[in-house]
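Final report, Chapter 2: Outcomes

The project's central promise was a pipeline that accepts a single protein chain and returns its three-dimensional structure in a standardized token representation, suitable for archiving and comparison. That pipeline is now operational. To close this chapter, we reproduce one record exactly as it appears in the project archive, with the input sequence first and the structure output second.
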Amino acid sequence: MSEIEPPYTIETLLTIMKQLRDPKTGCPWDRKQNFESVVPCAIEEVYEVAEAIRIQDYDDLRLELGDLLFQVVFYAQLGQEQQLFDFPGIVSGICEKLIRRHPHVFGQQHFDNESQVNANWEATKAKERASKAAESVLDDVPLALPALSRAQKLQKRCANVGFDWNDPEPALAKVAEELEEVREEVLQDNREALAEEIGDLMFACVNFARKNKFDSEALLRQANEKFERRFRQVEGQAKSAGKLLKDHTLEELEVLWQNVKEQEKSKKLG
């Protein structure tokens, strides 16, 4: 087993990965992994990168980006072992794609604004899908995406071919329509139909957010964070009163909740 000393480079990382997968001297855990088993690790690392950015911990972000890069290197090693592809092939592929999709930077084309850039980007991607014999503009939207993100991407793809409203108002009306259909199914007490209508309502909300240029996944994360922050403060108020949360009535908890909201409003105004 060779010793590895600084300075470290991408070549060092590739060497480390190769040694981790060595059939005789490698790590037992790394040796038994395959394409499928590494997927949860790769997804987790993406979320950890996002979390480091959210809390603006840039030293941690540097480390998390390294973890994410390692996932790419891991897949490269697996690909090389099976003679499918290797790390240089991955680098070559992304470089070729970026150059092809940015003719205004690496070629002779000229675009006057971001809208023209986006139009060219989508046109280029459409050509790429056609070269793969794709039957639909939705063919390569990954099933593994979080549901909100996938809904937004599906809607965006449809918008690129003209299947979209021109402004947010009809999208908001659709939200109201879907909400009314939820109410109707509540009255009918049909749980299967209710579940379907709730899904439609969520899809409509994603569409309205998209029309207002918001990312639905980010909005729900923010809502989660706000709820968690406020609920922790409710827990703190209950603890200060010397009473367990479960010993409060719902009405009492609502009073604590409203107190927290008012305190937050006062801080913002202050």
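Archive annotation: The mean pLDDT is 92.
This record, like all others produced under the grant, will remain available to the consortium after the project formally closes.
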